[in-house]
Automatic annotation (TrEMBL):
Keyword Oxidoreductase among record annotations: yes
Classification via PANTHER family: ARSENATE REDUCTASE (PTHR30041), PROTEIN YFFB (PTHR30041:SF8)
EC number: 1.20.4.1
The protein's name in its UniProt record: Probable arsenate reductase (Glutaredoxin)
Family stated for the protein in its record: Belongs to the ArsC family.
GO MF annotation list: arsenate reductase (glutaredoxin) activity
Pfam families: ArsC (PF03960)
Superkingdom of origin organism: Bacteria
Biological source species: Flavobacterium indicum (strain DSM 17447 / CIP 109464 / GPTSA100-9)
Enzyme type, top EC level: oxidoreductase
Keyword Oxidoreductase: yes
Keywords: Oxidoreductase
Length: 118
């Protein structure tokens, strides 16, 4: 599978997608227009090993809802990701059996490297 979950209004997502050597053959899903499904989140979880990695702690709602001070479980992270697109750490880039989550320079570099090795 080759897929990118992103937000088309996010300049950071656009910059990262542009930096990828090739996005040919990728399926793109704007998570605001087409919400992630339970199956999709579970597929991401199978590659990451936990839901917290997929969860954005930089989301405005995270702060507004006071979740920073809450002791969230794995099932809480999954539930919030499914409830509102803003809780999915983005972009999420899936290249076969590899997943790259978020916009840290290290993650972006790893995604670029994975694509250039193909």
């Amino acid at each position: 599978m080759r897929k990118i979950y992103y937000l088309k209004t996010c300049d950071t997502c656009k910059r990262i997608i542009k930096a990828l050597s090739s996005t040919e053959g990728f399926e793109f899903q704007d998570i605001k227009e087409e919400s992630v499904t339970v199956k999709q989140v579970e597929e991401m979880h199978a590659l990451t090993g936990n839901y917290e990695v997929l969860f954005s702690k930089r989301a405005k709602l995270y702060k507004e809802m006071g979740l920073k001070d809450a002791n969230l479980s794995e099932s809480d992270f999954k539930r919030y990701i499914l409830e509102h697109y803003t809780f999915l750490n983005r972009p999420v880039i899936i290249v076969e059996d590899q997943i790259f989550v978020g916009n840290s320079p290290k993650v972006v570099e790893q995604a670029i490297k994975a694509l250039s090795n193909e």
